[in-house]
């Protein structure tokens, strides 16, 4: 599949390149990434170069991963990353969403806006009929972003993605269906600590 650039009200979602390596390396030093993400830790510049030079282009080429950089304009610096990943062999019509935002850019609703744009693209182009979301229990920022992006909470269960030690601990889970619209009531109530605060 050819890479696609998306645009939302405030953002450009373009393909991250090796020119973004320093920003990716810088942002992935965040201690929260060690706690909540499956990215390598410690995170080295070579990890950023591998991600940008190999994983991103091969993911688009093979149709397995659709990864975008968030920018405020076409030539702007990378703010964060959102990706749609084909991980479920038993459900070829589904994708999993993953994302992270550099610490200086949190608190403005950027990621929820980007996730909405990426999911809308997947549905409008018949790339998926279901998009799944998960995060470690307690990752309130990720859960608030998913909720703001229209995901419905489906409960707690083992993670789809293995953690660094190869385990599948309990995670919060949610999903959006192609027929869902923002504001549709959740299947289950979101955890109390998730509700009532702005998304990242």
TrEMBL record:
<dbReference type="InterPro" id="IPR000182">
    <property type="entry name" value="GNAT_dom"/>
</dbReference>
<keyword id="KW-0808">Transferase</keyword>
<dbReference type="InterPro" id="IPR016181">
    <property type="entry name" value="Acyl_CoA_acyltransferase"/>
</dbReference>
<feature type="domain" description="N-acetyltransferase">
    <location>
        <begin position="11"/>
        <end position="178"/>
    </location>
</feature>
<protein>
    <submittedName>
        <fullName>GNAT family protein</fullName>
    </submittedName>
</protein>
<keyword id="KW-0012">Acyltransferase</keyword>
<dbReference type="Pfam" id="PF13302">
    <property type="entry name" value="Acetyltransf_3"/>
</dbReference>
<comment type="similarity">
    <text>Belongs to the acetyltransferase family. RimJ subfamily.</text>
</comment>
<dbReference type="InterPro" id="IPR051531">
    <property type="entry name" value="N-acetyltransferase"/>
</dbReference>
């Amino acid at each position: 599949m050819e890479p696609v650039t998306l645009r939302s009200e405030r953002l450009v979602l373009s393909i991250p390149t090796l020119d973004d390596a320093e920003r990716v390396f810088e942002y992935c030093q965040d201690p929260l990434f060690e706690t909540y993400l499956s990215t390598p830790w410690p995170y080295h510049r070579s990890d950023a170069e591998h991600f940008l030079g190999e994983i991103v282009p091969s993911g688009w080429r093979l149709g397995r991963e659709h990864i975008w950089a968030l920018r405020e304009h076409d030539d702007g610096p990378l703010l964060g990353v959102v990706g749609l990943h084909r991980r479920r062999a038993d459900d070829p019509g589904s994708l999993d969403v993953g994302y992270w935002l550099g610490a200086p850019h949190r608190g403005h609703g950027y990621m929820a806006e980007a996730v909405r744009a990426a999911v809308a693209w997947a549905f409008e182009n018949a790339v998926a009929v279901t998009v799944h979301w998960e995060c470690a229990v307690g990752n309130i920022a990720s859960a608030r972003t998913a909720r703001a992006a229209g995901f419905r909470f489906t409960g707690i269960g083992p993670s789809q993605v293995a953690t660094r030690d190869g385990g599948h601990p309990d995670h919060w889970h949610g999903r959006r269906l192609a027929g869902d619209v923002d504001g549709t009531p959740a299947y289950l109530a979101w955890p109390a600590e998730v509700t009532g605060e702005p998304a990242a």
